[in-house]
Design brief:
The chain is of the alpha/beta class and 260 residues long. The protein has 2 domains: 6-186 and 226-259, 3-Layer(aba) Sandwich (Rossmann fold); 189-225, no CATH class. It contains 8 helices and 7 strands. It has helices at 15-26, 40-53, 67-81, 104-132, 153-173, 191-204, 208-216, 228-239, and strands at residues 6-9, 30-35, 57-61, 86-89, 135-140, 178-185, 250-253. Helix 4 runs parallel beside helix 5. The longest helix is centred in the middle third of the chain and has 29 residues, at 104-132. The radius of gyration is 18 Å and the shape is globular. The N and C termini lie far apart (36 Å). The structure holds nicotinamide-adenine-dinucleotide (NAD). Residues 10-17, 34-37, 63-65, 90-93, 113-114, 140, 142, 185, 187-188, 190, 192-193 line the site of nicotinamide-adenine-dinucleotide (NAD). Residues 10-17, 34-37, 63-65, 90-93, 113-114, 140, 142, 185, 187-188, 190, 192-193 line the site of nicotinamide-adenine-dinucleotide.
């Protein structure tokens, strides 16, 4: 039961972030959703989630590529909901290109959104957690925080960096009632991934099942996607009493990818 707790989930108007926000709200936490977009539908997603779960859910527009905006997100959530004691750093983008062709602007954006934003939000949230003597920081890394693939230099570097940040913060919070862990998902079935299936079916002239097994989940031994619901349940577990001695870990949820 997470009632009495206040969560911020960065990049949470779709996919994994929204799945985690939903599970946290279902468990009773007050939740601040976030994206950089500020669309009308983003506010509606928050209102709908509040109605669905009975928890207080707000939407805060803030661009995680900007350090000051990251701090503002934590401050705004604290003003409106109370001291932030559950922080989920989930916002992330991807770009794929050989290193010699990799646009410098994409490298900078991926470093800012996938890695530096977590530094800025953690830096802003830790004083409140120390004061409460309770805190949970969950960083959404990736199987690519533990292994590499070609053409993903920025993403793999940022996710490995996020795992290093996770271990460091865990040590700093160890005697303060706070934990910090990274979840390292394999391929998760988000709306974004779902949308790629029809194109891949056409491109490879394959059935949906064959595209999923042989193209998308080539490196995922279970040949099953991770679900956003599983990500949500995992995050709630880490935030619960049962998770209080799990800290500094990079925890795979990848259908066996990193066992290979
Ligand atoms: P998604 O694209 O469905 O959702 C990303 C969210 O981040 C959206 O709400 C988007 O609006 C928001 N966002 C993007 N740029 C932002 C910015 N500058 N500031 C604030 N918000 C921003 O992605 P997803 O698949 O749910 O991925 C979420 C996280 O999980 C990412 O960090 C990703 O690297 C990681 N991940 C995803 C998978 C997967 O298979 N989907 C696997 C491993 C790790």
């Amino acid at each position: 039961d997470l009632s009495g707790h206040v969560a911020v989930v960065t990049g949470s108007t779709s996919g994994i972030g929204l799945g985690i926000a939903r599970s946290l709200a279902q468990a009773g936490a007050k939740v601040a959703l976030n994206s950089h977009l500020g669309r009308e539908e983003d506010y509606k997603i928050a209102a709908d989630l509040a109605e669905e779960t009975g928890s207080e859910v707000i939407y805060v527009q803030a661009d995680m590529s900007n350090g000051e905006a990251c701090v503002k997100l934590v401050e705004t959530a604290a003003e409106k909901l109370g001291t932030v004691d559950i922080l989920v750093n989930n916002a992330g983008i991807q770009y794929v290109a050989p290193v010699e062709d990799f646009p410098v602007s994409k490298w900078d954006a991926i470093m800012a959104i996938n890695l530096s934003s977590a530094f800025h939000t953690i830096r802003a949230a830790v004083p409140g957690m120390k004061e409460k003597k309770w805190g949970r920081i969950i960083n959404i890394a990736s199987a690519h925080g533990l292994t590499a693939s070609p053409y993903k230099s920025a993403y793999v570097s940022a996710k490995h960096g996020l795992v290093g940040l996770t271990k460091t913060i865990a040590l700093e919070l160890a005697e303060c009632g706070g934990t910090c862990n990274a979840i390292c998902p394999g391929y998760v079935l988000t709306p974004l991934v779902e949308g790629q299936i029809p194109d891949q079916m056409k491109a490879h002239n394959m059935s949906r099942e064959d595209v999923i097994k042989n193209v998308m989940l080539e490196r995922q031994p279970t040949k099953d996607f991770v679900t956003v619901e599983q990500m949500g349940t995992f995050a709630v577990f880490l935030a619960s009493e049962a998770g209080s001695q799990i800290t500094g870990a990079a925890l795979p949820a990848d259908g066996g990818w990193t066992a290979m």
